[in-house]
Design a protein that fits this description.
Two copies of one chain form a homodimer. Chain A has two domains: 205 residues, Isopropylmalate Dehydrogenase (3-Layer(aba) Sandwich), CATH 3.40.718; 141 residues, Isopropylmalate Dehydrogenase. The first copy, chain A, is globular and about 60 Å long. The mean pLDDT of chain A is 96. In chain A, 39% of the residues lie in helices and 22% in strands. A ten-stranded mixed beta sheet of chain A has the order 2-1-3-12-11-4-5-10-8-9, sandwiched between helices. In chain A, strands 6-7 form a two-stranded antiparallel ribbon. The first copy, chain A, is built from twelve helices and 14 strands. Chain A is an alpha/beta fold. Chains A and B meet through strand 6, strand 7, helix 7, helix 8 and helix 9 of A and strand 6, strand 7, helix 7, helix 8 and helix 9 of B. The structure holds 3-isopropylmalic acid (IPM) (2 copies). Chains A, B: Keywords: Amino-acid biosynthesis, Branched-chain amino acid biosynthesis, Cytoplasm, Leucine biosynthesis, Magnesium, Manganese, Metal-binding, NAD, Oxidoreductase. Chains A, B: It is found in: Cytoplasm.
Chain lengths: 364, 364
C-alpha cells in the first residue's frame, strides 16, 4: 500500500522541540519496517507570519488537505501579540479546523497513576480518571456571523459575535460522541445552557432525538455548562463521554485537563467526516501551548506530543497495536521515575526534553 | 429615617425553608431596635407559575423596583421542567436582573477554615481563598438579539444567540470591579476570549483604557476564559477580583464556588447603578439552587441565605457592623462543630436547618 502521508506543523515556542522527539519515534517505525511514512513539514503560527506575513498560507492548507493526517505542535508567543486580529497565530488552528472540516475535537482527560500527585485535586477524587470530551470545532460562536466591532452614532462601540448551530452540525458531532461511548462505558453527557440559550435548547432536543432513534444502547444525560464546570471539580469520575459546543468545549476540556494535573501529558485529535472511501481528514496536537517562556531550554515535556502521535496512529492509520506500544513506552518511562521539570516530584529523576525522548525510544 | 423596604422572594424547593431561618435574624434586629425593616413577601419561580401561570408577575417586578433590596431564595424543580422556554422558573431571575438593571453580579468565593476539608482541592491549594468574581448580568449572550430557533427551507433547524457588548456596558461593570479591588488587594483580572471573539476584544480594549485612565492604582491583568478555568483549579489564590461577561461569569463563578467545596455557604449580590440620590437597586441570593430532592426534609443549609443577608446589610443598607456580626455568628457556629448534612464531617455535630438557624440566633 502507498505510504501514509503525514504533515508535520511544529509551529512556535516549544513546538519544534517536542516535535523533534516524536520524529524519532516515526523514524524508528520506518527503520523497523513496521510502517513507512511520507513525511513533510510546513510553517504555521508565528513562524509562518515571520516568513510570509500570514499565520498559515493557502499552500500549507492545501498540503494539509492532501495528507492522511496532520501532526501539529503549538503556536503563538509574545512576539506576535500585536499583530492584527485576522492574522494572529491562533488563526492557523482555526483555519485548519474550518478548511479541513475538522468538526470533532477529541480531548481525553486521563490520570496516569504515576502522576496522580500532580493534580491539585485530592488523589481519591481523580484516581483512574478517564474522560473523553468531544468538542464541536467548526461551528458555534467561533465562526458565526454577524461578528465584529462597530461604532455607534454616539461614538460608543459595540462588539458582536453569533452563536449558531444547525441540526446537522449537532447530529454529526453527537454521533462521534455516541460511537466513542460504545467503545467505552456507554455513557454520554451532553452539555449546553438550554435554560438561557435557544441554540442550547436546539442542541439538547437534537441530541435527545438522535440518541432515542439510533443509540438506545447508550445512556444519555444532559447537564448545564455551569453545573458541568462544577461537577468536573466535585466528582470528575462521574463522566464517561461529554459532548458539547465549541465555546463550552474550550473551557470544559481545558478544565478537565487541569483536573488531571498534567497538561504536559495530554494529546488531542480533531477529526473530519469520513469520505466515501472512508478517508477522514484529521489533525493531532498536544493540548499545551507554545510556552515561549521555556522554549529552547530543553525543559519542555515531549510526552503530550508523543501521545498525540499515538492517537494519530490509532484513529487515522488504524495502527492500534503501534499506538498502544507508544503509550506503553511513555508510561514505562514515567514508572521508571523520569520527569521533565513540569511534572517533577520529590525522589524522581529530572530529565531534559531530549533525554525523555531518548528514554521513550529505548522502551520501544 | 423611614424603614428600609425589603422584599423577600423565597421561591421553590429549599428556598422557603432557608428564608425562614433568615427572617429570624431580621426579627432579632427589629426586636433589639438595631434596625427596623418594612418586609413583604412575593411569589417567584414555580410557586408563581402555579399561582399565576407566570414565573414572575409584573406586580412582583414593580414591588421589587420599589424596594431598597430584594432577598431571593431559589427557583425551579422537576415539576416545572416541561413548561415553555419563555415561562420557565429561571425567567424570574433573568427578568429581575434585566428589569431592575442589576448589571453587576458579585460572587465571592471564600474558604472558611473550619470547612477547608470540604473542598475536593488539596487544603494547601485553597487555604484562605478569597476571590471576588464580578459577572456582568444584564447583557451578553443571555439577552442579545437576534435569538431563537428557526426552520430552514430543507427542514433543518437552526438555533441562534447573539453575544453583544457595548463600551458603556463594559465600563460600568469594570468600574464595579476596580472599585472593589481598591478595598481588597488592588488587583483585577479581566477575562474573555479576545483571541477568537471580537466582543471579547472590545471587552479587553475597553477595560484596558478605563484602567489606564481612572484606576492606575489597580493592577490590571487579562486572561482568556479557558485559561482562567484552568487557573482556578491550578492555583485559585492567584486571583483577587475577576471581572467577566455574563456567560463566562456563569461558568467561572460556579467553578470558583466549587473550588471552595461548600456551595451551601456562598452568597451573591446583584447590583444596579446608583441613582442621583445614591439609591441602588439590588438583589441578594444564595448561589445554591432550589435542591428539590431535599426540600421539606429539614436538611437544607441556611447559611448561604444568611450570608446573603449579611451582604445585603453591607452593600444596600450600609450596616457594616451588623453584617460583620451576622457573618461572625455563622463562623462561630461552624467552629462549634455544627454541620448540616451537606457539609457534615467526621466528629462534627449533625444539625437540621432549624437547629442551624437557632444556633446562629443564639450567637447573635
Ligand atoms: C488557540 C485557540 C484559538 C483555541 C481555541 O480557543 O479554541 C485553543 O484554546 C484550543 O482550545 O484549541
Ligand atoms: C438560573 C440561571 C438562569 C442562572 C444563569 O445561568 O445565569 C444561574 O445559573 C445563575 O448563575 O444565576
Amino acid at each position: 500500500p502507498a505510504n501514509k502521508k503525514l504533515l508535520l506543523l511544529p509551529g512556535d515556542g516549544i513546538g519544534p522541540e517536542v516535535m523533534q522527539e516524536v520524529t524519532k519515534v516515526l523514524e524508528f517505525f520506518d527503520k523497523k519496517r513496521i510502517a513507512s511514512f511520507d513525511m513533510s513539514e510546513g510553517l504555521v503560527g508565528g513562524a509562518s507570519i515571520d516568513a510570509t506575513g500570514l499565520p498559515i498560507t493557502p499552500d500549507v492548507v492545501a498540503r494539509a488537505k492532501g495528507s492522511d493526517a496532520v501532526l501539529f505542535g503549538a503556536v503563538g508567543g509574545p512576539k506576535w501579540d500585536k499583530v492584527g486580529f485576522d492574522v494572529r497565530p491562533e488563526v492557523a488552528i482555526l483555519t485548519l479546523r474550518r478548511e479541513l472540516g475538522l468538526f470533532a475535537n477529541l480531548r481525553p482527560a486521563t490520570v496516569l497513576d504515576p502522576l496522580i500527585e500532580a493534580s491539585t485535586l485530592k488523589p481519591d477524587v481523580v484516581r483512574g480518571l478517564d474522560i473523553m470530551i468531544v468538542r464541536e470545532a467548526t461551528g458555534g460562536i467561533y465562526f458565526g456571523e454577524p461578528r465584529g466591532i462597530e461604532t455607534l452614532p454616539d461614538g460608543q462601540k459595540r462588539g458582536i459575535n453569533t452563536e449558531v448551530y444547525t441540526t446537522s452540525e449537532i447530529e454529526r458531532v453527537a454521533r462521534v460522541a455516541f460511537d466513542l461511548a460504545r467503545q467505552r462505558q456507554g455513557r454520554v453527557c451532553s452539555v449546553e445552557k438550554a435554560n438561557v440559550m435557544e441554540s442550547g435548547l436546539l442542541w439538547r432536543q437534537t441530541v435527545t432525538a438522535l440518541g432515542a432513534a439510533e443509540y438506545a444502547d447508550v445512556a444519555l444525560s444532559h447537564m448545564y455548562a455551569d453545573n458541568c464546570a462544577m461537577q468536573l471539580v466535585r466528582n470528575p469520575r462521574q463522566f464517561d463521554v461529554i459532548v458539547t459546543g465549541n465555546l463550552f468545549g474550550d473551557l470544559l476540556s481545558d478544565l478537565a485537563s487541569m483536573c488531571t494535573g498534567s497538561l504536559g501529558m495530554l494529546p488531542s485529535a480533531t477529526l473530519g467526516a469520513p469520505d466515501s472511501s472512508g478517508r477522514r481528514l484529521s489533525l493531532y496536537e498536544p493540548i499545551h501551548g507554545s510556552a515561549p517562556d521555556i522554549a529552547g531550554k530543553g525543559v519542555a515535556n515531549p510526552l503530550a506530543q508523543t501521545f498525540s502521535l499515538a492517537m494519530l496512529l490509532r484513529y487515522s492509520f488504524d495502527m492500534k497495536e503501534e499506538a498502544a506500544l507508544v503509550e506503553k513506552a511513555c508510561l514505562s518511562v514515567l514508572e521508571q521515575g523520569l520527569r521533565t521539570p513540569d511534572i517533577m516530584q520529590d525522589g524522581k529523576t529530572r530529565v531534559t526534553t531530549q533525554e525523555m525522548g531518548t528514554a521513550v525510544m529505548r522502551e520501544l
